[in-house]
Write a structure and sequence with these properties.
The chain has 210 residues and is an alpha/beta fold. The chain is 29% helix and 15% strand. The chain has 6 helices and 5 strands, in the order αβαβααββαβα. Helix 5 crosses helix 6. The chain starts with 73 loop residues before the first helix and ends with a helix.
Length: 210
């Protein structure tokens, strides 16, 4: 699937689920595509002008067709999330992921809809919460009312969310290669990958074969 390159904005790492930009940093980061809106927050639909009288209902898709002629189920058509790549160096991937997180939250995404994965050093929030024990840490994921940060090694344990952000901020190639397909499977509508474009492309190819 096509990758959509974006320019990152690097700023200081946040110490909590909601990242905030550091003072003095340039604010020229391109906005990531927020992705399709969930059914819980549909966009209003404008009525189409037409006759005031009753209108005959349109035939259902697939009506009068054999099963072989009917289009595929819509859930199958939407099973692959949109993929967006934000170029960033290894030491700036986490900052780029936090900037993407801020922009998605500003666009209206609920914090509980977003999962952030790191392939290298864990996010400071995850490291802090794990210091209180794994049970308390994973309980916050189950609550589902805030952004959840997890290490790539725990990606398979992470619950699916509409949006997944991956910061390719280090780690060995095998772990990183396995993380991207797992992140794709966890993402409902949008997967944002922050990292070196050439490495990410290579990892996506390697992940398809592991």
């Amino acid at each position: 699937m096509p990758l959509i390159p974006e320019e990152p904005q690097i700023h200081e790492s946040a110490q909590g689920p909601r990242a905030t930009a550091a003072a003095g940093r340039p604010a020229s980061t391109p906005r990531p595509v927020p992705g399709p809106r969930s059914a819980a927050s549909p966009r209003p639909v404008r009525p189409v002008p037409g006759p005031a009288g009753p209108v005959a209902p349109a035939p259902r898709p697939g009506a009068g067709q054999s099963p072989a002629q009917r289009p595929e189920n819509r859930s199958d058509q939407r099973s692959t999330p949109q993929l967006q790549l934000i170029p960033a160096p290894v030491d700036g991937a986490l900052d780029a992921a936090e900037e993407a997180l801020d922009l998605l939250l500003d666009s209206g995404r609920a914090p509980g809809e977003i999962l952030v994965l790191t392939t290298g050093d864990p996010h400071p929030w995850a490291a802090h919460e794990l210091s209180f024990g794994e049970a308390a840490y994973w309980a916050q994921q189950d609550t589902g009312d805030d952004v959840f940060f997890a290490d790539a090694s725990a990606a398979e344990r992470a619950a699916a969310r509409p949006v997944v952000i991956v910061a390719v901020n280090g780690g060995d190639e095998e772990t990183a290669a396995r993380t991207l397909p797992t992140a794709m499977a966890r993402a409902g509508v949008l997967l944002v990958v922050c990292g070196d474009p050439q490495r990410v492309t290579a990892l996506l190819g390697a992940g398809a074969g592991v």
